Structure formats: C-alpha cells, structure tokens
Amino acid sequence: MASERSLYISKSKYLSGLQCPKLLWTHFNNREAIPKPNDTQQHIFDTGHMVGDLAKRLYPGGKEVPMVFQADDAIDLTVTATMDLIKRRIPIFEASFLVDGRYCRVDVLVPVPGPDGDRLSGDTWDLVEVKSSTRVKDININDVAFQHEALTRAGVKLNRLFLMHVDTSYVRGDKFEVERFFHLEDITERVLRLTDYVPSAVTRMFDVISGRDPDTPIGPRCTSPYTCPLKDSCWSVLPDNNVTDFYRAGTRSFGLLDEGIFAIADTPDSKLTPRQVIQKNAVTANEIQVDRAPLRQWLNGLKYPLYHLDFETMNPAVPPLSGMRPYQRIPFQFSLHIQEDPGARPQHVEHLATWDSVPLPGDPRPGLVEALKAIGPDGTVLCWNMGFEKGVLEDLAEMFPTEAERLAGLVERMEDLIIPFRGFWVYHPRQKGNCSLKAVLPALTDFDYDALAIGDGLEAARQYQQALYGNVTVKERSLIFKNLLEYCSLDTMAMVAILSRLQKLAE
Ligand code: SF4
Question: Which ligand 1 atom is nearest residue 231's CA?
C-alpha cells in the first residue's frame, strides 16, 4: 500500500491512471517494477525539454520556479516560490501547485492584463502547455484538464487554456525564428468539457492507489496512448506463439483472449485472415511456409546489377538548416551492396556525412547525393519497405533540381524486398507475425543485430545527433561514426543474405 506521505497525484500519474489502473497502482506501490526509460525514450523526453526551453523565449521577463531536489520539503518550497511570483504578475515557468492531493507544474502561466491594459491590474492567467509534438492530441486535453482543476482548487483564476506545439509549416530562414516555430492553439472549450470528469477520476484513482493490485487485464490500453512500461511484464503470462503475435492482429487478438483462446495453434481458421492461416500452419508444423510460384515470378523480375540500398536519416525538431521545416528528415548516411549477378559476392559502398568540427557546419545532403552516383544506370535498386527510401530520394530530387532526373530514375528502378514477406509467400514461425527486417533476418539467416551498439534507425538518428550536437569527445564521436557504419552496413548485408535465402527457397 502507498504511504500517506506519497498520496498526491501528479499530472503524469493522472495520465498513467487514465491509461491503466494497474500502471497507476504500480507507480505508487511497486515503483521498482517500472523499468527506466531507454536511451531512445530519454531522447524523446530530452527533445521535449529542449522545445519547452525554446518556448520560454516567447515570454520575456518570465521567471522559472526552480525544481528543488533532495529536500524533504521540496514541493512546499516550489509551491511557496510560485505564490511569490504570482503576486508579481509576471510570466511564470513551471509554476507549481499542490492542492487536495493534486500536484502539477505548469509550463507557462501568463498574466492577463486588466481592462486598463496593465498586467498588474488584472487578476486572471492564461495557461500554456508546451509540447514537442505537431498537433493537439486527446491526452493533451486530459493533461490540461488536470492542471485546470488543480489550479482552480488553488484559487488561481484561469482565463484561456492553450496548447503550444511545433508548427510544421514553418520554414527556417537564414536564422531560426522561435516565434514562427510554434503554433498556439486555444483548447479552452475542449478542456472545460472535462470539468466534471476530472474530480471523479481523481477520486477513483485514490481508491486504486490505496487498494490491492487491480490486476487489470491486458488490452488495447497497453499500447495506447503510449506503450506501457509494464508491457513486457504483464504480457509475459501469455504462451509462446500467442494470439497477440498474429500478423496485423490489432485489437481482435484481445477478443480472442476474452474467448479463452490464447495460442495461435488453438485458433479456429474461421476467425483468421488467409495470411494468419499461413502463420498458424507455420507455427503448428514449426516450419517455414513457402509459396514458390509467386516467389519465383518476383525473383525473376529483379534486374542485375542489383543495388541493395538503405538510408539513415535524422528528424531534428529544430530545423538546423535554411529552407528546412521542423522534423523534416535529413539523410546523412547510406549503405549500398552491389551484386553483379545472382549469388555474386557483393561489393560494398558506404557514405556517412562526417565533419572534423561540430556542431554540424554544413548540409549532409549534397555529399550524399554525389556519393549516390555509385549506383549505375541499369539494374534494380532493392530496398526494404521502400516507401521510406523512395521518400528520401523524392525529397532530394526536389532539393537538388539538377540531380532530379537521376534521382527520379532510381525511384523508378526501385523494388521492395519486403514483398515476398508481406504477401506471405515466405513465412517463418520465428517471425512472430512481424515482417520487419529485424524480425525476418534472424528467422531466415544466421545474422542478427544483437551484437551491434546501434540496433535500430531511431537509435542511429539519436546517436548521430549526439555526435554532431552533443557534449562528446573526439574519441566518442569517432566511435559513434564507426558504430553507425557497422549498423547501416548490416542493413544492406542483411538484404543480400535474405535474398540469397529466398533464391534457395524458390529452387
Ligand atoms: S501492460 Fe497493460 S495491463 Fe499491464 S499495466 Fe500496462 S496497460 Fe496495464
């Protein structure tokens, strides 16, 4: 049971409680069971903090309520500091309130001027919640509704309620313009619709916290609005090859669980799509399923030399270059394995935009476009889930008109190695309903990503940005670049290995 002293609900816990009673209960009663954020999740949090700091520039004269750590009365100190600033009628960052068991820190409180236009004569405040996302989401409305309730209980008169998010229509000029980077959306009416809901929800949450583990059943809540940090633990009760592993199972798998059907092998075919039936057959027989006719036809359509291509990109919130939008993808690396003939040993070409000096002194794209000339005039350009690579090439064609024809030609020659797997012409039970490269590679070959320092594209982007803009030594930067080269190289080497296996399966 939670101790008396910890019995206040912060807005983050309130949002956890809306997602799942068990998650809320665990936060208060078994905190150690909740895993710490991984590096990629931490990067998302860090981006949020960085965007929050940028927003403060829009409120000159504002003061921040400092967070006090490691003091028994830390919260009391921040609340007292908030009350002092409220009297001064200046913009306040991280204003803190603890009232009736509700605790929140408000991103920005803005004093609304009185009828004479003087902020000192006013007595109301606008509340601004800052997000690094690009639109208003339902969870943001719940977030602000909780804050609205807490502040109203604390006697703060709120005027309008806003969500400030990143404006993706902003195009950076020579200099970054913070005032054009954000979009301020008035969400007052949407929030006020929850006025009656919040207090009853908070009451229910206190009951959950002080009760026994609610043992909430798994369901769609486990991944919405966020993937729950307890998912691995809660879902570990399911057997191997369970119904949540069905290809594109979505919420239907929870219907099967409700009916008492747990294992893929026990699911009646009448409840399955044709692809899921293939998956069930693979699991039941514990062997790979192959439909040779369409596979052979698809393989015969590949034209040599074959160019196995993979890009890595980053999407920084703040556009680092003139002409760029927030979160616009910037390709900085590619790996290319070239096979002259079927089964031939591949030749490797790679490119990674690196500089001796940081932060990023230039645009990685011109060098990358030049290096792509390693792709000759004929032959198939093979990608995995090619929509991504296609999009990168189309962006580059738009950016570099003199190279547009060449780059568009690469798009026209593109073929997607995921097609035999999406079509379930080939399905291995170890894929567990997943057609991603990371799932197919270890299922069909002896390769995997386990030994690499970088294991996915998000981590690659995070580490690249860390190398360019982070506080790293020259040695650390070199190591990141080395790891990036290894990671991207494995992506295209994986495609070579998978293609080779497909060719054998088609024989
Ligand atoms: S994994 Fe699902 S059931 Fe378990 S705590 Fe999270 S949301 Fe609740």
Answer: 1
Q: State if residue 20 touches ligand 1 by the CB under 6 angstroms criterion.
A: yes
Cβ proximity of 331 and 364 under 8 Å: yes
Checking if the pLDDT of 140 tops 80, the result is yes
Cβ-defined contacts of 41-46 (< 8 Å, 24+)? 43/458, 43/462, 44/132
Q: Is 54 in the pocket of ligand 1 (CB under 6 A)?
A: no
The whole-number pLDDT of residue 4 equals 39
Ligand 1 centroid – CA 249 distance (Å): 18
CB atoms within 10 A of CB 166: 23
Q: Is 27 in the pocket of ligand 1 (CB under 6 A)?
A: no
Q: What angle do CA 263, 265, 271 make, to 5 degrees?
A: 85
Q: What is the reported pLDDT for 70? A: 65
Cα(153)–Cα(160) distance, rounded to whole angstroms?
A: 16
The per-residue pLDDT of the chain, averaged, comes to 94
| CATH code 1.10.10 for 4-210 | no
CA of 220 to the centre of ligand 1 (A): 9
Query: What pLDDT, on the 0 to 100 scale, is given for residue 77?
Result: 87
178 or 447, higher pLDDT: 178
Distance 216 CA to ligand 1 centre (A): 7
Which CATH architecture group holds 292-506? 2-Layer Sandwich (3.30)
In ligand 1, the atom with minimum distance to the C-alpha of 21 is: 8
Under DSSP, the state recorded for 84 is: H
User: Where do the domains of the chain lie?
Assistant: 4-210, 238-286, 292-506
User: For ligand 1, what atom is nearest to the CA of residue 229?
Assistant: 6
